[in-house]
Amino acid sequence: MERSTRAGRRRRWAATALCTGLILSACSDTSDDQAAPVTCGEIPTGRQIDSSASASGTADIANRPEVATGYRTGMQPVTTASYAAATANPLATEAACAVLRDGGTAADALVTAQTVLGLVEPQSSGIGGGAFALYYDAASRTVRAFDGRETAPAAATEDYLRFVSDTDRRAPVPDARASGRSIGVPGAVRMLEMVQDRYGRLDWRQLFDRATELSDNGFDISPRLASAIADSADDLAVDEDARAYFLNPDGTPKAAGTRLVNPAYAKTLGALATDGADALYNGPLAAAIVDKARSTAGGMTPSLMTTEDLRGYRAVDRDPVSTRYRGHRIVAMPGPSSGGITVASTMGILSNFDLPSMGPTALDRDGGRPDPAAVHLVDEAERLAYADRDKYIADPDYVPLPGRGVATMLDPAYLKQRAALIRPNTSLGEAEPGDLGDVPLGSHPGTEHGTSHVTIADKYGNVASMTTTVESAFGSFHMVDGFVLNNQLTDFSAEPRDESGALLANRVSPGKRPRSSMAPTLVMAPGAGGEPDTVVGALGSPGGAVIIQFVVKTLVGVLDWGLDPQQAVSMIDFGSANTPESNVGGEHPLVDTADDGARDALVTGLRQRGEQVSVDDQSSGLSALWRDGDGWIGGADPRREGAVMGDDASLR
Predict the structure, then answer these.
(1) Are residues 544 and 469 in contact, defined by beta-carbon separation less than 8 angstroms?
(2) In sequence order, what DSSP letters do the residues of 33-102 get, joined into one string?
(3) CATH number, domain containing residue 113
């Protein structure tokens, strides 16, 4: 799509959001850097990208992330006095903010945010999916990592996603994703209950009130949700419940502004409020999930999930991983998320270069123009980190990391050796994994897609960063009792071995958790006088395997280039997995995508260094909060419809 065409459709707009009685502007036109708060009865929408095809026109809709929905120029950072919340939808942010206002903790607000997101952004996350969360507890000054990742059924085999059975070697119907085979045992609710039970202050039951109210009274479909429905309409039509909810009687997708009510979801929330997470893992709800997953309607290949699989699900409290960077400590998720280790590995490699001297030029509210030489270093560091990820990281309860585990993969001496492989004017193209011992595993990148992210800081000093998902847009396309069921098992490698015959770490196994790239992240500063480190930043993003790149970009923007959180989030999305191709987000107003970027300084600078560059639109959904005195300064991604809110919020 030519830049001239897309620029003509880009509208500058001001997103407004209500929190504790204050309506505040989340962004402004670039012509006025000091925009005043505005009052308005609805949240306007940014420019929309054509959802009928990808930027290249060749992507398989069933296997790509959520559609891109534009870019809001000139967004201003939001500052708060003591607490803040950021989610991917203003209704969810407002609900989380109200919990904080009423004395709740970050743990309480996570529950409310997730239940509302599952209603207003069902294409991205919900109670039928999974999540990872980092939680900083101010009382103990400690961080814990909580694993609510979905699991494979006990009856799953290595060929679960490839064949109907050992004796029926046909592929699942209609395909692995839209069949019952993709549906994992959901984990988000069990994990949220674990976090809230440990750190919450409010009564569990009241945390469901806002989502229940919205379900009963209805909400208007946002432009982003409308685009997602249109993009997936044919697949949603196959499931009777999804068709009735998302499509009109004539089969056309429901449009933006259509009022949606979901009494089935309200009933489900009522059961969860009364009986806790057990309502989802035992009894009628569990039976309904299993019945839908095992359905053979339309010839669909069924799941082998049982009610015993749900009854036996456990969320896991894990030790986070961390690495030092520019005087800070970056704290991240351990396996089965590869995101945290890969972010930490990338940052450890980059610590060997003088990135602070290579900041962006023409700095503006949209993050300025990154230096191609600096972006090249980031791309190459990510290639090396992804190479190790692709070979070594999986569910640690099934496949242990090499050597001393995380300590081996993040050893500064090892990462310095990896950094020495980077050349300033040439590209590795596709890097080899490092030699971390005699590990008889093949390497496979796998595929991952869309998610949502929540970042919350409460007035007691607790901070939460949670990434939550149903995997691809609308998960498996199957819906039960008002919520979408995930397709998380397609994050496993369908093939158990690589081309050489070596076993893959991320192959399917009974009860195993598929590898993820979700990367909720906290940034810590050293405590004074030998005191424990204190949290100064929290961030994360949706985006599948590209999450790692989005988080790294934002960390570099804040820690190396001194950008405020909004500038760092708004900055051009760039990065690379371990392929010759690098990403430069063409949705950004400072990227010239005409003639495939032939006249864009960043794109040509990377190509001169031997990189292949894609200028396809990126669909990050970053949010970031950074300590600002006693309060916070926050940024929400201009590429989605999220918002930052808090007490006494104002625009910087």
Answers:
(1) no
(2) TTPPP---SS--------TTS-SSS---GGGS-PPP----TTBPPEEESS-EEEESSHHHHHHHHHHHHT
(3) 3.60.20.40
Write the burial class of residue 531 (CB in 10 Å: 0-12 exposed, 13-18 middle, 19+ buried).
exposed
Query: In this predicted model, what pLDDT tens digit does every residue of 68-115 receive, in sequence order?
Result: 678 999 999 999 999 999 999 999 999 999 999 999 999 999 999 999
pLDDT at 42 over 90: no
Full domain range(s) for residue 184: 3-317+448-576+618-651
Rounded distance between C-alpha atoms, residue 470 and residue 323, angstroms: 29
How does pLDDT run across 604-622, given as a tens digit for each residue? 999 999 999 999 999 999 9
Buried b (16+ CB within 10 A) or exposed e, 75-88: bbbbbbbbbbbbbb
What angle separates helix 372-392 from helix 547-555, to the nearest 10 degrees?
140
What Rg value do the Cα atoms of the chain yield, rounded?
Answer: 23
The verdict on residue 593 lying in a domain is no
Q: Are 473 and 450 in contact (CB under 8 A)?
A: yes
CB 571 within 8 A of CB 362: no
Comparing CA positions, the residue from 386, 453, 501 lying closest to residue 624 is: 453
Residue 263, pLDDT above cutoff 50: yes
- 8 Å CB contact between 528 and 516: no
Kindly name the residue from 105, 212, 451, 468 that is annotated as catalytic. Answer: 451
Bridge partners (DSSP) listed for residue 145:
134, 318
DSSP state of 454: E
What is each CA distance from 431 to 385, 388, 500, 505, in whole angstroms? 9, 9, 18, 18
Q: Per the domain annotation, does 595 fall within a domain? A: no
Q: Is 203 exposed, middle or buried (0-12, 13-18, 19+ CB in 10 A)?
A: exposed
Cα angle, residue 429 at apex, residues 425 and 431 outer, rounded to 5°? 110
pLDDT at res. 650: 87
In the numeric block, the tokens 């292949």 are attached to: 612
In angstroms, the CA 155 to CA 107 distance is 34
pLDDT of residue 13: 24
Q: What's the whole-number mean pLDDT along residues 435-447?
A: 76
Q: Cα separations (Å) of 118 from 6, 106, 130, 269? A: 31, 18, 11, 11
Distance between CA atoms of residues 24 and 626, nearest Å: 19
- Map tokens 């001194």 to a residue: 562
Whether the ω angle into residue 396 lies within 30 degrees of 0, i.e. cis, is no
69: left (phi over 0), alpha (psi -120 to 50) or beta: alpha
pTM (2 d.p.)? 0.91
Quickly tell me which residue has 């950008």 as its tokens.
563
Among this protein's residues, is 5 annotated catalytic? no
Q: Which of 462, 409, 459 is nearest to 144 (CA)?
A: 462
| DSSP single-letter state for residue 560 | I
Is 608 contained in some domain? no
Tokens of 136: 């900083």
| pLDDT in the model for residue 274 | 98
Does position 53 have pLDDT exceeding 90, yes or no?
no
HEC secondary structure over 253-301: ECCCCCEECCHHHHHHHHHHHHHCCHHHHCCHHHHHHHHHHCCCHHHCC
Which token pair is 588?
């950004």
Number of domains in the chain: 1
Q: Quote the distance between the C-alpha of residue 631 and its chain's center.
A: 25
Q: Is position 43 within any domain? A: yes
The pLDDT of 151-160, averaged and rounded, is 98
Structure tokens at 384: 């090396």
**361: part of which helix (H) or strand (E)?**
none
